[in-house]
Amino acid sequence: MAEHSNITTHGAVPHGGGQVSAEQAADHGASQRKIIWRTFWILLGITSVEFLLAFTMKRGVFLTGIFVLLTLVKAFYIVGEFMHLKHEVKSLIWSIVMPVVFIMWLILALLIEGGSILQVR
Fold first, then answer.
1. For 4-42, how does the pLDDT look when each residue is reduced to its tens digit (9 = 90+)?
2. Are residues 70 and 118 in the same domain?
3. CA–CA separation, 7 vs 18, rounded Å?
4. Per-residue buried b or exposed e for 27-65, using 16+ beta carbons within 10 Å of the residue's own CB
5. CA torsion sign, 59 to 61 to 63 to 64?
6. Where do the TM regions start and end (predicted)?
7. Does residue 37 share a domain with residue 79?
8. How far apart (Å, rounded) are the C-alpha atoms in residues 36 and 38?
9. Neighbours of 12 (CB within 10 A)
């Protein structure tokens, strides 16, 4: 039985059965590394801002709100970048994002209402 392989002599695996040259594979690898490093620096920047705020601002509702907002920004960026959601059609993105936003709103509303029950006589 003959062994069939889609791997070229350069070690690159082609998409769609076509041949991929070593130069194309290297270019693709370089662009992927550039995207990963850009993502790293963006997430590091947001985390650094969170870290700075944690030690410079007074504790309170405002600081907690900033932390929640920055954490959500990082979460949506990670989902978009690493789960490739930003490359999908807009209707799929909205069908995933809108329920998440509504659930977060529901949790916030329940927390506010749950806290106000203690003031009711």
1. 544 444 555 555 556 777 777 777 788 888 988 999 999
2. no
3. 10
4. eeeeeeeeeeeeeeeeeeeeeeeeeeeeeeeeeeeeeee
5. positive
6. 35-55, 61-80, 92-112
7. yes
8. 5
9. 19
